[in-house]
Amino acid sequence: MKKLLVDNAIEAMGRAYAPYSGFSVGAALATREGKIYLGANIENSSFGVTSCAERTALFSAVAAGEREFSAIAVVGGRGGEIKDFCHPCGICRQALSEFCGPEFEIYLYNGREIKTYTLSELFPESFSL
Ligand code: THU
Q1: How far apart are the CA of 11 and the centre of ligand 1, in A?
Q2: 57 C-alpha to ligand 1 centroid (Å)
Q3: In tens digits, what is the pLDDT along the chain, a chain of 129 residues?
Q4: Res 1: pLDDT
Q5: Is the CB of 50 inside a 6 Å radius of any atom of ligand 1?
Q6: What rounded mean pLDDT belongs to the chain?
Q7: Share in percent of the chain as helix, strand, coil (round to 5)
Q8: Is 54 one of the annotated active-site residues of the chain?
Q9: pTM of the predicted model over 0.85
Q10: For a substitution probing ligand 1, which of 44, 50, 51, 94 has the most ligand atoms within 8 Å of its CB?
Q11: How far is CA 123 from CA 17, 22, 89, 98, 119, in A?
């Protein structure tokens, strides 16, 4: 599953719209049933409007009716070249925490190895109402 999700994240990265930062990100989100939703970062000339790859994938999946997720893979790099791990930003961690439990897995790939985290490791003591 890890390799499959990472491969999907790499494919998704190819769809990034990142003319301002030049930094492409791809994400592949797996539902508990094994369906995969892709996301890429989509930038905007009003910078704050930009959507990260993780939220693009999450919101596509939720809009398609999904509510239960098992893992997400994230890759990124300048010009789409994967050299380092691309850690999800704080807003995306909060967005994932709305739908994903503490055991939800996050796979990061730097072009050589896959690092695995749980959501509770990357986003402990999270806010919820
Ligand atoms: N970006 C993501 O897509 N995901 C993250 O978790 C961090 C940042 C995007 C947003 C922006 O288009 C570019 O990377 C540079 O910040």
Answers
A1: 16
A2: 13
A3: 899 999 999 999 999 999 999 999 999 999 999 999 999 999 999 999 999 999 999 999 999 999 999 999 999 999 999 999 999 999 999 999 999 999 999 999 999 999 999 999 999 999 989
A4: 86
A5: yes
A6: 98
A7: 30, 30, 40
A8: yes
A9: yes
A10: 50
A11: 27, 27, 10, 12, 6
**Pair 28, 60: CB distance under 8 Å:** no
**Cα 120 to middle of ligand 1, angstroms:** 21
Take atom 8 of ligand 1 and give the residue whose Cα is closest.
52
C-alpha closest to that of 82 among 128, 16, 19, 29 = 16
Which residue has tokens 């509510």?
A: 67
Q: Is 52 in the pocket of ligand 1 (CB under 6 A)?
A: yes
How far apart CA 24 and CA 10 sit, in angstroms, is 10
Gap between the Cα atoms of 102 and 85, Å rounded: 21
16 lines ligand 1 (CB under 6 A): no
